[in-house]
């Protein structure tokens, strides 16, 4: 059972409860078996404030004190006086949703069987909780923006006088919002040799709220791809900044993580918080997450800096081009946690 703190703007209980009612998703293998599961979990529940208070009735620690200790980084186990019985009725149905891929073949006879890949997810939440008369979840920033940038990167590669040495894959995938399902299906059932997938770039809600003055390339510190993005950023005159929201753990929260789990180095380039004017990029980011993220308000009525979108396309294109031209494929840094866990390096 999971309690959603009412004062956490990232975790709206009513939105997530409505999402839970839609069920859980998993892709099926050729034998019709789901690719993942946790047989030891027999039931689950998401609790709002009143349900959590009922759960803590009779406990020697109040719910508020338990929340405070967790938020302070010193959580403690609590013996509850209540017992809970959970019963569920499940209905299964098959849903088809497609990944869309395009390939630009490389020009080098030896390297064209290796692939630099770009991925963005096209899905969002469809129709959901009604907000002031609107129940259509448009997903403009999340993630029409990333999908458009991948298409523009593909156009740029196609317009080159000669293709890069390595081949390039462009992917618009499905069901990211339901657990990275589209990208996970691809990496486990690739249309090219999995061993040939050498690098991945994920474009997911890059934040097009202001001019692109600095970037946060998640993953740069984990592999040699960090050197490539540094070259591209320097060429464009864009600074590379530290992660301003490390508590969000963004490096494992989008489609690039499906590639990482298969031992493939990846980059997830996001806008930094420098705006070039008096505005505070951090405040803009927080306001979006509190007011529009995963709601119908993420639509085209918001402010978009399309110049920032073009610069995101450029920096991702340039970084990928550098990697596609290099003699050696990207490598995980020596002793890196993700490289050791998933690639044995």
Mean pLDDT: 92
If classified by CATH, what would the architecture of the largest domain be?
3-Layer(aba) Sandwich
DSSP helix fraction:
25-40%
> Secondary-structure element order, as H and E?
EHEHHEEEEHEHEEHEHEHHH
CATH class of the largest domain: Alpha Beta
Biggest sheet details = 7 strands, mixed
Structural class: alpha/beta
Principal-axes shape call: globular
Number of domains: 2
What are the low-pLDDT stretches, counting only 5+ consecutive residues below 50? none
Count of helices? Answer: 10
Name the CATH superfamily classification of the largest domain: Zn peptidases
Number of distinct beta strands: 11
Question: What is the gyration radius calculated from CA atoms?
Answer: 22 Å
CATH topology of the largest domain: Aminopeptidase
For the terminal residues, how far apart are their CA atoms? 37 Å
Q: Approximately what portion of the residues adopt beta-strand conformation?
A: 15-25%
- Strand order in space, largest sheet: 3-7-4-8-11-9-10
Protein model, in words:
By secondary structure, the chain is an alpha/beta fold. It folds into two domains: 2-71, no CATH class; 100-343, Aminopeptidase (3-Layer(aba) Sandwich). The protein is built from ten helices and eleven strands. The two termini are 37 Å apart.
